[in-house]
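ok so heres the complex, two chains, lmk if somethin looks off
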Amino acid sequence: MSGSAPRIGVVTFPGSLDDRDALRAVAQMGGEAVALWHADPDLRGVDGVILPGGFSYGDYLRCGAIARFAPVMDSVVAFADAGGPVVGICNGFQVLCEAGLLPGALIRNRSLRFICRNIWLRVETSQTCVTEGLTPGETIQIPIKHGEGQWVATPEQLDAVEGRGRVVFRYASPAGIVDDDHNPNGATNNIAGIRNAAGNVVGLMPHPEHAVDPDVGPEGGQPLFASLLHTAIAGVSV
Amino acid sequence: MTTFSFEVLVTLKDGLSDPQGKAVEAALLALGWSNVAHVRVGKHIRLEVDAENVAAARAQVEEMATRLLSNPVIEDARVMEGASS
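and the predicted structre for the whole thing:
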């Protein structure tokens, strides 16, 4: 793939934390990692965009509320509307919801505690830019680390997300059992990640970029990056 | 142009559980105020707007309240007029 590696951009906002890990994960999985800057609308010709985790603008007002108005976001929205793959991880998921690219919102964990540990996810659909290499029902282990990861939505939004197969990941047991015992933050229907109608925009609270290197933890993030690199070139088939 | 003061009160929608409110409620109960219930925590934002008249100022604050100050998916925003200066 040398010379034609997919170019994946990672946006750094003031307060982003996981941009470095995301860039590193892209490179480790064979992509060309491209650093993007919140104040620069130029996406530098990337084939895919990652909005990383962290605390953009200090999480002031609401998580992601101010980042969504950053100059780069107009370009990200246009890129997503044109079918380009966009993945929001943790704070990036919050930004995508605030920007209206994904439905619902993330509110404080029901325990009120910041949670940082490895969890299991059940894959619900392979029709997205990060799961095309996975099989529905399969489980993967990757970490979560968030204080505001409880996904909620209006009844109409929830009906649309559930009814049209837009749930991408649910918190589950290692065997794939979805119940309240395996719901770390109180998210509606154990929802950990969702997609848009076309499947090219995905938001998830867990951190695949922290789960690609066998030296430092689980490797459940690898297939997500492999899918992203592939769909960045080939597109998402829904 | 006149300067108008406003206060915007942002609260989680009634149907949504408010973990912060619950924690505060538990703390109040623990302090012995056993007659307290339904505690909800919100945000209070104070601001000033220069505008031709109060109607124009209010319209602008209403728009700001919906577009940035609150997230209509999870929150209600109440715009209240303060004293003009």
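quick notes: Chain B has one domain: 2-81. thats all i got rn
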